[in-house]
């Protein structure tokens, strides 16, 4: 079990926004988290990454509580929002900085980035612009590429398709599918089509609770659509 969640709760005021008794993720799984606005997806991801403290319960990464042991940071990469970027750097400077944290030289980083030219669609590198001056979608591309560059064992992405144009959404799906099996991927998405296409397992959350947890098959998209149209 690479990730385990036990009796995890986050309470704000009188509202329990995450309430997960037990969740186990096996290494190599591609898991999609779906649920309406306010279901608790982002709050849950923030607890997986020790960005906020649970009110109760624990998140174990390779058996260690993420709050007490930082080893998970060596093999986990994530992009939840633009807060993960550094606004006053150019994308190149940001990639070099992130690379340096993972013992990658400037040459390693440039070599790595060549495979992203299609994903970047000519809009990211050599623009001379700071990250803050990019569109939201292009900022997302920088964040996702930087996360993948770390060759993580666990990748966590919050609504990665949301601000991407359709062409880039498809390119991102291909990137994620190419990594499937080598990496444990946890993504949240409101795009039922994309999430069922990429993920082998879907977890449906409502008011912080897991309502359904199932393996994706040819009926999954239809089941999810009927669930959400009710
Ligand atoms: N810091 C906070 N203080 C109080 N309430 C919060 C806080 N952060 C989140 N919440 C509440 O927790 C609930 C879950 O929010 P969260 O952002 O985790 O949902 P989500 O499933 O990611 O939603 P979306 O699909 O809209 O991104 C919401 O009702 C939200 O208002």
UniProtKB/TrEMBL annotation:
Protein keywords: ATP-binding, Nucleotide-binding, Transport
TM region(s), chain numbering: none
Residue ranges of domain ABC transporter in the record: 3-229
GO MF annotation list: ATP binding; ATP hydrolysis activity
Matches recorded under CDD domains: ABC_DR_subfamily_A
Gene3D superfamilies per record: P-loop containing nucleotide triphosphate hydrolases
InterPro entries linked to this entry: AAA+_ATPase, ABC_transporter-like_ATP-bd, ABC_transporter-like_CS, ABC_Transporter_VariousFunc, P-loop_NTPase
SMART domains attached to this UniProt entry: AAA
Domain of life where this protein originates: Bacteria
Keyword Nucleotide-binding: yes
Official protein name in the record: ATP-binding protein
